[in-house]
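User: Can you help me understand a structure? I only have the sequence.
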Amino acid sequence: MTASAFARRLASVSAAAALAAAAFVAGMPANSLANSLQDQTSLLTIRENLVQVQLTRAKLQQYEPLAEKGIVSKTDIEQKRADARLAEIRFQRSVMDLVSTEPKITVERAVKVKGKDGQQYLELALRNATLLVDDSQQMLFASMDKDLAFPREILQRRLDNVFISVREANNFAGGAGAGAGTGYAQGQFAMPSQVAVAIPYDLKIGSWSYNETKVLRFRLLTDAERFNIHITYRSSEHEIGVYAEQKFQSGDVELTAGRINQEANLGSAIDYPFEIRRSGQDSRAFFFQVYNLPPSISYSIVSADGKSRVSQVRLENGETARPLMLRLELPARHVEGFKLDAPLPFIVAAVDEKNVAKLPAGDRKVAETDFSGQSLGSLELKLVARGLGKLSIVANSLVHELVPGAHSEFGFTVKNEGSSSLENIRFDSEKPNGIGVAFEPALITSVGVGQEKKVKVRVTTPNDSAVGEYELRVKTEGYSSTRPLAIDEKVFRLVVKSGPSMLPVFVVLFLFLAVLLIIVYVGKKVRLR
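Assistant: Let's start by predicting it. Here is the structure, written out as C-alpha cells:
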C-alpha cells in the first residue's frame, strides 16, 4: 500500500469512526459516560489507538512482500507482527474501558408486606437497565475495522454475580426517581450504610439479562419505611434509596401494637400504644371501634402523648402511619362480665370514612375472622384484670394513757377493703426509746375480701419514763396475689402520766389506827369499872 493510499484509507476510517462515535454518544442515556470530559477523553483514546492499529498493519503489509524476497530479516517481520497485535490489544482495552461502566439498576417496586408467619417482608422489583453495547455501538466498532475481533463480553448486556442487600437508611437522600413505582432510579443515591437490616444479608443474582426484572424478597429485621438498596457488581458498589409502600393482607389499613397482652389492677387505667398504617397516599379520615369489652370497662382513643382524646384520625396526603393509644379504665370493684386473673381478649377495628357502614355494631361479639376480606383493619389485644387487696387499720381511739412501770393494752382492726385477699400481714413499729411494744398476733396469714382481723398491742413502760406525750407508729406490710402491698401505717399518741400519790393511803391508815387505838383504850376503861 502506497503512502497516499494509506492516507486516504486512514482518513475515511477516521471519518467513519467519528460519525459512528457521534452515533455512539447520541445513543447513550442522559447520564452516560459521554457527557463528561473523562468520557470524551476515552473516545479520543479509542481513535488514537485505532490509528496505531492502522499504522502497524500498514507497515506489516509493506514488510511482508520484502520478507518473502529476503530483503527484510525474519526478526524484523516478526517484530512488525508483534507491534500490530499489541496495537490491537491496546485498542480493545480502550474500548472495554469505555463500555465497562457501572451497572444501571432501577427499582420498579418496593413494597412492605406481612407474611403468613407474621413477619414483615420487603419485596423488591429490580430491572437491569445496563446498556453495555447497543446497535449503534456495534456499528461503531464494525466501521472502525471489520477485521478486529472483540471479546464476547463487550457484546453482552447480561450482568453476572450481582449482590443485593437491604441496609438502614441513614441520611436518606430524598427526591423523586425516574423509575416506576416508589423506587428511585439510577443516580438518586443515599449515603452509604454498613448495617444490613434484612435477611438474607446478601442475595446473589447469578445471571441477569438486559431489561430483565428480578423480584426479590427480604425478611425485615427492623420496622422502617425507608431503606437503602445496596448493589455490588465486581468492584463497584452503590446504593439506591427507596421509600417502601405498604401492602396489607386485610385491606387498605392495618393496626399494629408492640404490647398486645397487659395486666392492670381494678380501679386503674392501662394504655395500649398502637399504630395505624394505610397503603394509600391521599387525605383520609379513620374511625375506631372496640369489641368484646364488658360494659364496666370503658375505653377511649387518645393521642400518642396521652394528652387528648380523639374520635377520629385524619391522615393527610403522604402520611402513611400515625401512633396512637387505646386507654382502658377498669372499675374499682369486680363486677360480672369478666374474670379476674384470666385473659380477656378484645378487638380494636379501624375503617376509613368510606367504609364506616361495614363496621359491626359496638355491642356485638365479633372475631377477627369477621373482618377478613373487607377494607377494615383489626387487632386483637388481651387484658388480664388483677384484683388487689387494700389494707386499712381502724382503731376506736388513737390516744392512750400510760403509767410508768405498768403495762397497757389497746387494739385495732385490720380490714381488707380491696378486691383480692391479703396474705402474710406483719406488723412493725417506730416507738419511743425504752418503751416496749408487742403485737398479738404478730402475723396474720390471710384476710379475705371484706373481712377483718383484731390485733392487740401490748405496751410496756419503764419505771423511769418521763411524763409527756409520745408517738407510736404502727406499720404493716403484706402481699396480695403475690404482689407486695404499699406500706400502711397508723399513728397512736401515748400519754405517760405520773403514778398515783401515797399520801391519801397513809392518812387513811393513820386514821384507821387512831380509831382502833381509841376503841381499845375505851374498851379497857369500861372493863376496869
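Now, to help you interpret it: The first strand starts at residue 105 and ends at 114. Helices lie at 3-26, 37-68, 74-99, 135-144, 503-528. Let me know which part you'd like to focus on.
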